[in-house]
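To assess whether ligand presence alters the predicted conformation, the chain was also submitted together with magnesium ion. Input:
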Amino acid sequence: MQSELSYTRVREGLEALRMTSALSVLDNVLETARIDELPPVDVLDRLLEIELHARHDRRVETNLKFAGLPYRKRLDDFDFDAQPSVDPDLIQRLSTLRFLEEGTNLLFLGPPGVGKTALAVGLALKAVEAGHRIFFITCHDLVGRFRRAIRMERQERLLTTLLRPKLLILDEIGYTPLERPEATFLFEVIAKRYDREKAIVVTSNKSWGAWGEILPDQVMTAAILDRLLHRSVTVNIQGESYRLREHRRAGLSPRNLDLGKEVHSQQPTDQPS
Ligand code: ADP
Ligand code: MG
């Protein structure tokens, strides 16, 4: 009788605490415990482990939805042989995510198609799986979101979106020149994250020296680079586009394909230093 009452109260308690996963396995765990004659502490241990696991998985799923990643390719799928200018040991060290705790920025520089975004995405997935919030946005989309935010007087909200995540990925800086209000906003994001020791991953087709071409003036360029580079690791990636290489391997000539952007981008005048 007493035990029946306790059982009902445990169910109600788990429900009130929203421990839905523990609740759903409660009967199973109790039955196993009875058969295996497990001590009470082991029963609690099992229930909590199941609940915590499920919560972690749900958080990862939510964070993945929020992340805005363009695709979900893992670092394990990165072909290091195809990209000798990327040091696998360095990527391995970065994948421990110590850089997140230190607030170290990562800068992947190089011509199109060499794997800058792929490496940023791979590290972002690691961070999400470790339970962190991340946010990925291209510079082009950032400009669009900023202009919309201005119209709707929601800059603060956009700023929060960019400041709150443990990791921010700014993809493809260098294609879109920034006007003064946009550049000022970008500076604010970079400076505030710097102050809070929160990491940013930047990918760019432009070397530092060329950032002046996309920002309104030298003072702004120096101020942004100062924050970005102070605690940072730069990975210069060279070589040909992985996509074009794959096409070539398949015996297709880029000239015969409608590869518009990629073919065009095969003529970078702006090699990273
Ligand atoms: P970018 O340097 O322009 O950001 P991406 O990272 O988007 O280039 O790479 C272009 C495509 O090629 C992506 O689908 C990416 O996953 C793939 N890719 C690039 N480099 C590699 C690599 N070394 N191994 C496996 N896939 C790669
Ligand atoms: Mg890219």
